[in-house]
Amino acid sequence: MELSGKLCIVICALMSVSNGNDMLTLDKQEDFVLVGASPKYKCTVNQNANFLIGNPLKWEKRGRDGSKVVISVLANVEAGLATEYNVQLDTTDNAMSFTLSFKQGIKEDYDGHFACVLYNKSNTVLAEKAVDVHVIRTIQKTEFEIGDQKQTVSGEPALSIRLEEGTYKPICRTEGSNPAAVIKIYLGNTEEMGDPQVEVPDTSRTQPPIVYNVEKSATISLKPDDNDKILKCVAKVRDDDSMKTEISYKLEVFSIPPEISCNNITAMKGNKFVELTCTIKVPGITCTSGNIFWENGENGDRYDVDYNQNGLRVFCLKQVKGLVSTTLRIDAVTEANFKTDYFVVYVNKHSTTTRKQAILNQDYSGAASLQNVIFLMCSSLLASILL
């Protein structure tokens, strides 16, 4: 008997909750409103007036921090709140509606929930419905930067800037909006997807609503073909053009070609230690950056700095800031060396390649092996002395 009694209590409680939820309807569950707006929220009790005598309906304001303020009991607004709120009563035979409105318009601290709640005589909740009110705050600040350029003024004509060709990471930031702004970055007419935007609540703000600072970045490669393109950041709240900020740059993209000069060498077959030397002048160049090498024009072989194989050696020397010299040394000149084109190659930080040929001319004069003859004469003389 005791078990059946408990079971009855549980079933009755569930039926009460179910019936309670059916008692109330609310025309909105979520709303985004601007400060000063005058929305209305209609809560309908699907019962007659006699029911409400013992089961009053209350409108309550519930803050996101857990605070609660009773606005009205039935259609009677609480003392001290009559200048802010109004509750209008409308009746039919089987229902009564209580419409909440805002005499002074929506305020920032209204961000939260407005609930209509049915209580019984014991002040126990029979049913409740709530609308989640988001007080919109427009973007307070927008910032768009690329390289060492930064803009914070929205809506102005595109700012013209010069950038060297290469890879950049433009970053767009917004501050102070609720909900978080959605940021998009465009190069020309193409949206640069980049990294997902980061949304962070502004903890320095202590009053509702919670506002968000947002950051969006993308990696782009700029080339001279991108001249006159517009790079822009577009930020919107709730995809509403009336709550949009836009900052843009008009691009002039340039490249700095290296100045390469090479000495042309004339040699004879059999000459020792013939050197082809080139100088490269460009800001920021070093011998250790791995972007200087020599290339065999016949087979494409690459000879990096400090290469030392097959009778070839490569040296590099930094002369002054922004200037290096590099040398390809041929230990012993052969016929094949004259048939090969040798190039010095420089690849800049943006992967743009520049080549310059260092020419090895062949000397066809009669003293084809003068160096070797002198060597043999000296060897013979030394041998006779030793004997």
TrEMBL record:
This is CD80-like immunoglobulin C2-set domain-containing protein. The lineage of its organism: Eukaryota, Metazoa, Spiralia, Lophotrochozoa, Mollusca. Keywords: Disulfide bond, Signal. Residues 168-239 form the CD80-like immunoglobulin C2-set domain. The keyword Ligase does not apply. Residues 1-20 form the signal peptide. The keyword Disulfide bond applies.
